[in-house]
Amino acid sequence: MSSNLRDRGREFDVIVVGSGIAGLSAALAAAPRRVAVVTRGELARDGASTWAQGGIAAALAADDSPALHARDTMAAGAHLNNTASVRRLVEAAPAAIAWLDALGVDFDRAGTGYALGREAAHSRARIVHACGDASGAEVMRGLAAAARSAAHVHLFEYCQAMALLQRDGQTVGLRVQHRTEVATLHAPAVILATGGVGALYRYTTNPATADASGLALALAAGAAVADMEFVQFHPTALAPVGDHSGQLPLLTEALRGAGAVLLNRSGRRFMLAHSPDAELAPRDVVSRAVWAELERGERVVLDATRAVGAAFPEKFPTVFASCQARGIDPRREPIPVVPAQHYHMGGVRVDADGATTVPGLYAVGEVACTGVHGANRLASNSLLEGLVFGRALGQRLALSDAAAPSGESSADLDAAHLEPVPAQIDTAIRDLMWRHAGLVRDAAGLALASASLVRLADTTRHPAALGRIRVAQEIIVAAQRRTYSIGGHFRRDAVQVAAG
Ligand SMILES: Cc1cc2nc3c(=O)[nH]c(=O)nc-3n(C[C@H](O)[C@H](O)[C@H](O)COP(=O)(O)OP(=O)(O)OC[C@H]3O[C@@H](n4cnc5c(N)ncnc54)[C@H](O)[C@@H]3O)c2cc1C
User: Fold this and answer.
1) What is the C-alpha separation between 500 and 494, in angstroms, rounded?
2) 3-class DSSP state for residue 9?
3) Catalytic residue among 33, 124, 256, 283
4) Residue ranges for the chain with pLDDT beneath 70
5) If we measure between CA atoms, which residue out of 404, 429, 250, 219 comes closest to residue 322?
6) 193 within ligand 1 shell (Cβ under 6 A)
7) What pLDDT is stored for residue 500 in this prediction?
């Protein structure tokens, strides 16, 4: 445990920022190197990974193959994917599942093999899951147990990465904060595994730790980013009470798969007018239809009373618990929903080995852009990405003989670094991005959001706030450059390019 930074070693071979599936996969695979894992909260419980419901995609069924998995991944990504990365991802998937199994992850089974679920846009049943709809929690339980007992892994929990240290253009360490204490950790390799950008949007399914701080650190260090405009939204999050912004409980797609329908205030199934597949149309189509209803002032509900009814607690325990906590009984009443930011396909640009454009700086998982998702992510490919590319990166660094740079352990951050982003700035960014750089974009809205962010930046010297504004601006610039609609990027002032 990291209760006191003063008593801890400061020299490592590798520093991993983040303890989600990507960070822990990399840390474990980097043995026997001395690895520091710096994470915001409690190990493995503070990121999006633990919230994952559906599971992990892998071509394991007799009628499936990595080639089919690749085909579905490319179709979902509108063929903007990096084909070499996709091939690597799908071919490594079965072995990656076997590795988790060997670590003790208790996947749901059917007969002699795994129980394989089928999700939208997958042409085969290939979703390996655990504990029904609590897959992420079980996977992270297994990874956390392995990390806690690994002698080469040194844990810095409740620690925040504040700044990357560079010497002569080379990454040499990281400044971290634990409560009011600040320290410097040294290593010739720093891996960002900090997750997504949920904190940029009014509604998100991501936990608060997905605040884009890893992207901001990378940008400040001069790293290139890619595909920033591609943000995925989930159509059905549990609508908040009042003007709450931030994380909302996810109502899994499997509910619509089971027959739950979306209704507006007049009880009309509006999805029938948008797609022949109605509620089972692609995520972004359903999300925009829900958004359009809400924009018209309609309330939207997901009605699972007939399709699921009394079986709710047993079939969807996580969703049932979220509804109950909000005083809703989904067995008997429809659930109010809003769309919510869910996943960022773009991120810090990395090569096939996870290296960014800055020497010694690596990125993996949702914060990185390997190009594997193209313009839109295929469901259940993101846990897989963290797992496959995390392990590969750890193995690569295990073979590296870069020496740990030694140096003083200074602590020269000013007090402003230690404060959270001011609430009014947090809210202003979320609202601007939600309205103008979210589900539906156009030139005028993007220009307005950009100018507003410039003005907002002038009102603060808060480093984390400025970092977050910088990431938001990168999304806007990329969205302005891509003047047509494709994948998760929708311009209402342009024509849709058909997925090839
Ligand atoms: C509700 C929900 C359901 C999902 N369901 C699925 C699913 O079924 N299948 C699937 O494949 N994907 C799913 N996803 C997406 C998937 O969970 C994420 O894309 C994936 O878990 C990201 O993993 P990661 O390791 O990159 O980041 P995370 O798991 O988010 O971990 C990020 C880590 O970085 C730490 N961190 C961040 N900033 C700092 C900082 N400045 N200093 C120190 N530490 C920091 C955090 O504390 C955390 O430990 C779901 C996502 C959500 C939100």
Assistant:
1) 18
2) coil
3) 283
4) 1-4, 7, 404-418, 495-500
5) 250
6) yes
7) 42
Listed in sequence order, the residues at least 6 apart from 480 whose beta carbon sits closer than 8 Å to its beta carbon are 443, 446, 447, 450
> At 364, which amino acid appears?
V
User: Quick check: 349 and 356 in contact, CB under 8 A?
Assistant: yes
Per DSSP, 80 falls in state -
Alpha-carbon 444 to chain mean position: 28
Q: Is 204 in the pocket of ligand 1 (CB under 6 A)?
A: no
Quote the pLDDT of residue 405.
65
**Is residue 283 among the annotated active site residues?**
yes
Rounded CA-CA distance 463/292 in Å is 36
Sign of the dihedral through C-alpha 393, 24, 372, 64: positive
> Would you state the pLDDT for residue 1?
45
Domains of the chain plus CATH, in order, are 5-199+207-212+345-399 (3.50.50.60), 233-338 (3.90.700.10), 414-500 (1.20.58.100)
Q: Report the relative pairing of strands 301-303 and 335-344 from DSSP bridges.
A: antiparallel
Residue-level pLDDT at 495:
59
Rounded CA separation 179/418 (Å)? 8
| pLDDT at residue 2, rounded to an integer | 46
Q: What's the CA-to-centroid distance between 221 and ligand 1, angstroms? A: 22
Which residue, among 346, 332, 319, 311, has the nearest Cα to 248 in the 3D structure?
A: 319
**Which residue has 């892994």 as its token pair?**
153
State the DSSP code for 493: T
Distance 40 CA to ligand 1 centre (A): 12
Give yes or no for a contact between 388 and 93, defined as CB atoms under 8 angstroms apart: yes
d(CA 350, CA 364): 8
Residue 405 makes CB contacts below 8 A (sequence gap 6+) with 167, 172, 173, 186, 187, 188
Q: In the numeric block, which tokens belong to residue 250?
A: 């996810």
Upper half-sphere CA count for residue 60 (Cβ side, 13 Å):
23
For ligand 1, pick from 107, 176, 177, 366 the residue to mutate: most ligand atoms within 8 Å of CB.
366
**Minimal-distance CA residue to ligand 1 atom 51:** 52
Q: Cis check for the bond before 32: say yes or no (omega within 30 of 0).
A: yes
pLDDT of residue 211: 97
The answer to whether 278 touches 269, Cβ cutoff 8 Å, is: yes
If 0-12 CB within 10 Å is exposed, 13-18 middle and 19+ buried, where does residue 6 land? exposed
| Residue recorded with tokens 């049932």 | 320
Q: Are 472 and 437 in contact (CB under 8 A)?
A: yes
135 CA distance to ligand 1 middle (Å): 13
- The single-letter code of the amino acid at 15 is I
Judge whether 380 and 57 are in contact, CB under 8 Å.
Answer: yes
Ligand 1 pocket test, pick from 25, 50, 51 with the greatest ligand atom count within 8 Å of Cβ, gives 51
Check residue 411 and give its pLDDT: 42
